[in-house]
Amino acid sequence: MILREWIKERFLSEELEMGMWWLGGFLISVALTAVAVNGYPQEDLVVSLPGQPKVWFRQFAGYVDVDEKAGRSLFYYFVEAEKDPDTKPLALWLNGGPGCSSVGGGAFTELGPFYPTGDGRALRRNSMSWNRASNLLFVESPVGVGWSYSNTTLDYRRGDASTAMDMHVFMLKWYEKFPELKSRELFLTGESYAGHYIPQLADLLLDHNAHSTGFKFNLKGVAIGNPLLKFNQDIPSSYQFFWSHGMISDEIGLTIMDECDFGDYTDESPHNVSHSCNDALAEASSIVSEYIDPYDVILDVCYPSIVEQELRLRKMATKISLGVDVCMSYERAFYFNLPEVQKALHANRTNLPYSWSMCSDVLNYRDSDVNINIIPVLKKIAQHHIPVWVFSGDQDSVIPLLSSRTLVRELAQDLNFKITVPYGAWFHKGQVAGWATEYGNLLTFATVRAASHMVPYAQPSRALHLFSSFVHGRRLPNNTRPSIDD
Ligand SMILES: *[C@@H]1O[C@H](CO)[C@@H](O)[C@H](O)[C@H]1NC(C)=O
Ligand SMILES: *[C@@H]1O[C@H](CO)[C@@H](O)[C@H](O)[C@H]1NC(C)=O
Ligand SMILES: *[C@@H]1O[C@H](CO)[C@@H](O)[C@H](O)[C@H]1NC(C)=O
Ligand SMILES: *[C@@H]1O[C@H](CO)[C@@H](O)[C@H](O)[C@H]1NC(C)=O
Asked: How many helical (H) and strand (E) elements, i.e. helices and strands, does the chain have?
């Protein structure tokens, strides 16, 4: 800790006089000493990423073998809190899919400290990074996602249970690399299909704690954004969302509500519905149009063919809609496929025979696991007195707030939780940032106004406020008084 303060002071006073090359050498030598002092793995230290703005916090990236015999290994990216990393909590973030990258998604286009630049060749700061409130750990899970891999091809068949078990092993072995963080407050967060991953992992960690006479996970909270919780309830709410947002006609909306029985809706087999329902669903998708981003219905879309060409020509791909670069995902894919970026991140150490993509093409995930009802898992977590937050970007039509809100309320009833914060607006920078409610002092539901499925991507500042409140165990402010951003 002391050493890190010293590094900061040295840099602040001397950086102006130093040449870049010298600065680089200085950074390496001092950082390595720091590593030796607090036991972090120096081979995983990310000295600097290509085109990265200078920062004072450290980044680590590398592999943790979860099954040496099979050759199964998960890739992680860890970024220290911007200030006081030695006292700030640890938050794990997972993206969903199943099969999508937490490093590409969460870390580099949502809540991490950097976003790709418009030409896909460098990075810019995200000033609303969640590492202002916490140390952040991103993991490519399961194997087959991003740079996580297995030497055993059959391992690419994964499902909820095996994914959670690998993550349990991962956490134990990752703590061996970062022993200082073992006893740190741990928060588990994620979005979308991580509505499965995160609660199921929390469940395993709580089981571990119940059986372990030694090490116990210091789990302090679970927060999931636009989470898949109960498939046959989340799907119909997409159509309600289309209907209420004028994205389908009244006729089609009424037909779907009258004719479709979503009770037995499963992903693997066509659900048992009438012809008129199926016709209405097909018509609905054609009216909604493919020129809409279902994850944020108010943003404009990016045209991939144009953008990919521009990136190759070293042009800026950036296209701003409502303050957000809607082409960021293409800039990210370009950046992550640069060999020098992979080298700097210690990624792709086995030279995988395919290129980096946001969502995996090699993973063979059990389709039927989407039908697992997560509500009983959330119930168990709440019964262990672990705070559970469900938040929802209110412009998302894929897993809209409607079903999440209902599921949380029903869970509260099941738990016999009383309303401890009545449903009402919460504020950020003097504006309504969303609406929130709390049950039993433990279970929070909050919307984030004008946010997408990827809440921190479209509303970085509101998202940071929400996350910061969550890790500090604070309620969201129900008045307009200026609030602390950290
Ligand atoms: C996987 O195979 C590679 C290449 O044979 C080997 O270097 C590595 O140790 C194996 N195991 C893991 C976990 O990568
Ligand atoms: C579909 O529902 C009808 C009426 O409830 C029932 O008779 C039929 O067996 C169901 N079919 C399937 C494939 O579940
Ligand atoms: C891994 O590296 C090889 C080159 O060695 C490259 O062709 C491939 O696209 C990379 N894969 C990923 C997932 O980064
Ligand atoms: C706002 O929150 C405070 C503190 O929790 C509470 O006392 C007050 O009643 C709340 N006001 C409204 C309008 O809900």
From this structure: 14, 18
Residue 168's nearest CA partner among 132, 204, 198, 131 is: 204
Report residue 114 as tokens: 């950097």
* Amino acid at residue number 300: D
Pocket test of ligand 3: the residue of 352, 356, 357, 361 to mutate, having most ligand atoms within 8 Å of its CB, is 352
Other CB atoms within a 10 A radius of the CB of residue 1 amount to 13
Half-sphere exposure of 376 (CA within 13 A, CB side): 2
Q: Are the beta carbons of 139 and 167 closer than 8 angstroms?
A: yes
pLDDT at 461: 96
Position of tokens 């433990």? Answer: 442
* 247 Cα–ligand 2 center, Å: 31
CA distance 131 to 91: 9
Q: Is 65 in the pocket of ligand 1 (CB under 6 A)?
A: yes
Q: Where are the alpha helices (DSSP H) in 415-481?
A: 455-458, 460-472
The candidate with the shortest Cα–Cα distance to 191, out of 296, 341, 79, 332, is: 296
Parallel, antiparallel or unpaired: strands 114-116 and 123-125? antiparallel
pLDDT at 50: 97
Instruction: Give Cα separations from 200 to 163, 195, 228, 377 (angstroms).
Output: 9, 9, 12, 7
With H, G, I as helix, E, B as strand and everything else as coil, classify residue 337.
coil
Helix (H, G, I), strand (E, B) or coil at 399: coil
Token pair of 301 as six digits: 């879309």
Q: Does this model's pTM top 0.70?
A: yes
- Do residues 397 and 294 lie in contact, with contact meaning Cβ atoms separated by under 8 Å? yes
> Is residue 409 over pLDDT 70?
yes
